[in-house]
Amino acid sequence: MIHWLYERLLLRNLDKLPHHVCFMITGEDMIEAPRQIVETTEWCREVGLSGATFHISTDRPDEIRACLPAIRKVGDIASLNLYYAENVETAGEGMEVTVAVGKSGREEIAACIRKIAEEGVDPAEIDEETIERHLTFRCMPDLVIKTGGNYLTDFLIWQSVYSELFFLDVNWKWFRKVDFLRALRDYQSRARRFGT
After folding, report:
1. Could you cite one Gene Ontology molecular function of this protein (predicted)?
2. CA-CA to 83 of 20 to 30 Å: which in 101, 105, 142, 154?
């Protein structure tokens, strides 16, 4: 009951929401709570976000295979783009949700540079827009939420350079709606500088 009242209070006081939120989760956390991804997507939809990205950090994407049915359920309530191994699956409609399993930002940047080189672009013509057109993940998250600790992966290293960061000691398994709303409240209290 107290959590419900606190949620209502937090919701009532939210007036400046991020457009896109990125959640960074470890592979171990995903294995412990695979259904949490659908519930969290539902919270994002309820508050009116435009999109959400979930990065599942793992060096062994095969360990996440058992979680794929739960991840695919996101497609029942949103437009899902699932990046797993070398495959991309799409399903559903509505709010844009990307789930990237074991993807590396450094690998993405290297692939981006290879694509530009293959197209024969003059190095003098390469600018930020050129790079952004060749990225795999086009979202620019306003807020990155990291559960279970205070370290980040290299995922979205280009795209998240101006993102606000929110670290939670709570592991993904115990991540509640009230934690999500607290992150949104913290976001709206910040003065975003975009590198200036």
Report:
1. ditrans,polycis-polyprenyl diphosphate synthase [(2E,6E)-farnesyl diphosphate specific] activity
2. 142
What are the tens digits of pLDDT across the range 122-162? 888 989 899 889 888 888 899 999 987 656 777 887 778 78
Domain count, the chain: 1
Does residue 51 form part of some domain? yes
State the pLDDT confidence band at 54, using cuts at 50, 70 and 90: very high
The residue segments making up the domain with residue 154 are: 18-104+140-189
Residues 163, 145 contacting (CB under 8 angstroms):
no
Q: Which residue has the tokens 């600018």?
A: 127
- Residue 97, domain member (yes or no): yes
Encode pLDDT of 68-119 as tens digits.
999 999 999 999 999 998 899 999 999 999 999 988 888 888 989 999 999 9
Does a structural domain hold residue 132?
no
Report yes or no: 119 and 134 within 8 Å, Cβ to Cβ: no
Query: Which CATH number belongs to the domain containing residue 153 in this structure?
Result: 3.40.1180.10
Burial class (CB in 10 A: 0-12, 13-18, 19+), 158: middle
Cβ atoms within 10 Å of 10's Cβ, excluding its own: 16
196: tokens are 């200036």
Residue 74 CA to residue 33 CA, distance in Å, equals 14
- Token digits for 70? 């739960």
In the DSSP assignment, the letter for residue 46 is H
Q: Are 36 and 99 in contact (CB under 8 A)?
A: no
Residue 13, in any domain of the structure: no
